[in-house]
Amino acid sequence: MIIKLYGAQRCHKTIYYQELLLAKNIEFIFLDIEKNSQHAQELRKLYENKKLNFPTITIGEKKLRNPSNKELNKWIDKLSIKKSAK
User: Fold this and answer.
1) What is the pLDDT of residue 10?
2) What is the pLDDT of residues 21-61, one digit of tens each?
3) pLDDT band for position 65 (50/70/90)?
4) Which of helix, strand or coil describes residue 2?
5) Taking a C-beta distance cutoff of 8 angstroms, is the pair 23, 13 a contact?
6) What is the widest separation between alpha-carbon atoms in the chain?
7) Coil, strand, or helix at residue 3?
8) What CATH number is given to the structural domain containing 18?
């Protein structure tokens, strides 16, 4: 399962999620929407209003917009369960 983090390097929330995922030793792809217009377009496609709502984390098909620690951990735990079941 691929985890993507859409955000901007200057954003403190984006940095927070990067550090959180790194601390949990979870592989993810960081997509800087300010430095790469293709990443910005990909993020716009996730939302009906086509806004750059960041930070956004996708875990497979699940989209999390600025999730709380509790919500993010819930989805990370579900991912871990799936990984261990393989």
Assistant:
1) 96
2) 999 899 999 999 999 999 999 999 999 999 999 999 999 88
3) very high
4) coil
5) no
6) 37
7) strand
8) 3.40.30.10
Give the alpha-carbon dihedral of 27, 38, 15, 11, to 10 degrees.
Answer: -170
- State the burial class of residue 84 (Cβ atoms within 10 Å of its Cβ: 0-12, 13-18, 19+): exposed
Give the angle subtended at the CA of 73 by the CAs of 62 and 1, to the nearest 5°.
Answer: 45
In the chain, how many domains are there?
A: 1
Quote the CA–CA distance of 36 and 78 in Å, as a whole number: 30
Residue span of the structural domain in which 20 resides: 3-85
77-84: long-range contacts (C-beta < 8 A, 24 or more apart)? 79/1, 79/3, 79/26, 82/1, 83/1
DSSP string, 4-68: EEEE-TT-HHHHHHHHHHHHTT---EEEETTT-HHHHHHHHHTSTT-----SEEEETTEEEES--
Asked if pLDDT for residue 85 goes beyond 90, the answer is no
